[in-house]
Automatic annotation (TrEMBL):
It comes from the Eukaryota. The keyword Repeat applies. Keywords: Cell projection, Repeat. Its main location: other. Residues 87-157, 222-292, 536-608 form the PDZ domain. Transmembrane segments: none annotated. This is USH1C protein. Residues 311-519 are annotated as: Disordered. It is found in: Cell projection. Pfam families: PDZ (PF00595), USH1C_N (PF21219). Gene3D superfamilies: 1.20.1160.20, 2.30.42.10. Residues 311-322, 329-374, 406-466, 509-519 have a biased composition (Basic and acidic residues). One of its GO terms (cellular component) is cilium.
Length: 636
């Protein structure tokens, strides 16, 4: 699967990138990303290769190579070539600008793109962004429109509805002779480059059409104008010819602010509020000069004076004031007529284009229908000529197919039967193996349990022998003492009676089970204690909760009358208390002896004392000494 994805990726890269050096750059970037896992560096390198909108699908081809932990961030950074188109509606109220400028046109071989959006303007509020591609304006396609036609179309109406799609790139031309190139409008998040090094930085800092602010010459001057409460600047401007682009002063109204600050015919506006106008188009100049009431203008005096002397300046101009000017009414009417003419040209061109597309589509459909009809006639003739041969071939093929199908069915049935038998045998062998393993484990556990009980019985016998030896030694000591008092009549004592000379009473007073008076030596014999630690524990009773222990032994077992804990269950009272462990001997329960009694009686005493009155159960236990368990392993 991974090899297939890699092969498809290489094929797409081969188709998109014809230059071998660009392909090498792409593969090097991917290898460096695999080593450093720096997503921002990868995006920065990819942008050097994806340098036009028609290559943006390469971002989608790279996405399967990005780890899951980076894919969410990758989707946020890279532009989406398949972004959904959206509608932006703008309404012009009064003379104020809508706050955006456009770039591109069919004369440049590109579409129309949003080059600048004034902050807090109606355009920004409506959702227009730098890097948006304009698809339609008021229902008209802009694919074959010039930049001038689009600007006039947007100025000829107070209502603009644009269908746009965000691309995130802008066409760039520093000078008229430069080759068209594309730049991204947003920097890569987390990259070391500053906003000034990107198209977005230029838009923010220069607020221009992509060219840097011009340098001031010796005669250039910069003026500040506040138009609040004034009728306007009081001058009209126009654009220069193709060989001398720019924005020039066409006339100055007497007594106006323009005259007051010294503007004259032919003066060139280099920039306004940081927006470069040296290569600005008509719409960008209007947006810059009418976008604010406070203007900082860089002026180059009489730079275009010869244009007016030779009468080669274009007729179209715009007045930068708000008062009506009767002397310019003829010029305004001509301007409106020109705008209407251009708008009508754009409408007619769109209608012609749509009509042409319709005619081409109808002609193509008609041609397709004729070809289909001709194909049907030829096919019918061929079918009539070869009908008999076809029937014979079909019959033979049908017979062969039925035979092959029958053979395939029999083969499948045989394979299915063998597979079922094999699976049944495997299941039976697995079941027998598990059953044998379980039986062996149970037998091993039983042998170990019997061996452990035998060892404990031997230990108990050794303890009894030590106790009898001790009693014999004590008796010999008593016989060696001088007998000053007449001895009582001799009575024969059996070995069992001698063993129980200090046998623990069946019931011990509760005062002896108090922590202050608890003395194991006074309650049990040394053989019973057998060198072990004797503890007294109190286990608090709880409703509907059992003691949770399993005991074995008693006088009818190999343990010689001992009651031994063989299991402490999770969740029981003993497990919660934590003082009773497997191997401990229970010697007394609430004052009732647990020595030399049957196992059933020991279990009955535990049940009775658990049900008896009182909030706790007092147990006297002999702690099991640590054992070397490797000595208890039995080899079979």
């Amino acid at each position: 699967m991974e090899k297939q994805i890699a092969r498809q990726f290489r094929q797409k890269v081969q188709a998109l990138l014809e230059d071998e050096s660009e392909r090498d750059t792409l593969y090097t970037s991917l290898r460096e990303y695999h080593e450093s896992m720096s997503l921002s560096e990868l995006i920065t390198d990819l942008r050097k290769v994806v340098n036009s909108p028609d290559r943006m699908e390469l971002f989608e081809d790279v996405r399967p190579l990005i780890p899951l932990k980076h894919q969410v961030e990758y989707d946020k950074i890279v532009p989406n070539r398949l972004a959904k188109a959206r509608i932006v509606k703008l309404v012009k109220n009064g003379p104020d600008s809508l706050g955006f400028s456009l770039r591109g046109g069919v004369e440049h071989g590109v579409g129309i793109y949003v080059a600048h959006v004034v902050p807090s303007s109606p355009a920004e509020i409506s959702g227009l962004r730098v890097g948006d591609e304009v698809l339609r304006i008021n229902g008209y396609s802009v694919n074959e429109s010039t930049h001038e036609e689009i600007v006039l179309l947007t100025q000829s109406t107070n209502y603009i509805e644009m269908k746009i799609r965000h691309i995130g790139m802008l066409p760039i031309k520093r000078t008229r002779t430069d080759q068209l190139r594309w730049e991204y409008v947003h920097p890569v998040p987390g990259s070391p480059e500053s906003p000034n090094g990107t198209v977005l930085g230029e838009v923010i800092n220069n607020m221009s059409n992509g060219a840097p602010s011009p340098k001031m010459g010796k005669e250039d001057r910069r003026v500040f104008v506040n138009l609040e409460g004034t009728p306007g600047l009081g001058c009209s401007i126009c654009g220069g010819p193709a060989y001398k682009p720019g924005v020039f002063v066409k006339n100055v109204k007497p007594g106006s602010i323009a005259e007051e600050i010294g503007l004259k015919l032919g003066d060139q506006f280099l920039d306004v509020n940081g927006i470069n106008l040296t290569h600005a188009d008509y719409g960008e100049a209007i947006s810059a000069l009418k976008g604010s009431k406070q203007l900082t203008i860089t002026v180059r005096p009489q730079e275009g004076e010869e244009l007016f002397k030779d009468n080669i300046i274009p007729k179209k101009s715009i007045h930068l004031d708000n008062e009506s000017q009767p002397q310019d009414s003829e010029e305004k009417r001509a301007e409106r007529e020109e705008l209407e003419r251009l708008r009508q040209i754009a409408v007619d061109r769109e209608k012609k284009r749509q009509k042409k597309e319709t005619e081409e589509r109808e002609a193509e459909e008609k041609k397709k229908q004729e070809e289909e009809q001709q194909s049907k006639l030829q096919k019918r003739k061929s079918e009539e000529d070869d009908e008999e041969i076809s029937r014979q071939l079909e019959q033979e093929l049908l017979n062969l197919s039925l035979t092959q199908q029958k053979l395939d069915d029999e083969k499948k049935q045989e394979e299915s039967r063998k597979h079922q038998e094999s699976r049944t045998q495997a299941q039976r062998r697995e079941s027998e193996r598990k059953e044998k393993q379980t039986r062996q484990e149970l037998e091993k556990e039983e042998r170990m349990r019997i061996h452990r009980l035998q060892q404990e019985a031997k230990e108990s016998e050794r303890e009894i022998q030590r106790e009898q030896q001790w009693l014999s030694q004590e008796a010999e000591k008593d016989l060696r003492k001088p007998n000053l008092i007449p001895s009582p009549p001799k009575t024969y004592m059996s070995p069992s009676a001698a063993q129980g000379v200090r046998r623990t009473p069946s019931r011990i007073g509760q005062d002896k089970l108090s922590p202050e008076k608890f003395d194991p030596a006074s309650l049990f014999t040394k053989p019973q204690i057998a060198g072990r630690e004797i503890r007294m524990i109190k286990i608090k009773k709880e409703k509907d909760t059992d003691l949770g222990v399993t005991v074995e032994g008693g006088i009818d077992s190999v343990l010689g009358g001992k009651v031994i804990v063989t299991e402490v269950w999770d969740g029981g009272l003993a497990h919660r208390h934590g003082g009773l462990y497997k191997g401990d001997q229970i010697m007394n329960c609430n004052g009732r002896t647990m020595l030399d009694i049957k196992l059933a009686r020991a279990q009955e005493i535990l049940r009775e004392e658990m049900k008896a009155a009182g909030d706790s159960l007092t147990l006297v236990i002999a702690v099991a000494p640590p054992k070397a368990y490797e000595d208890e392993v039995t080899y079979f």
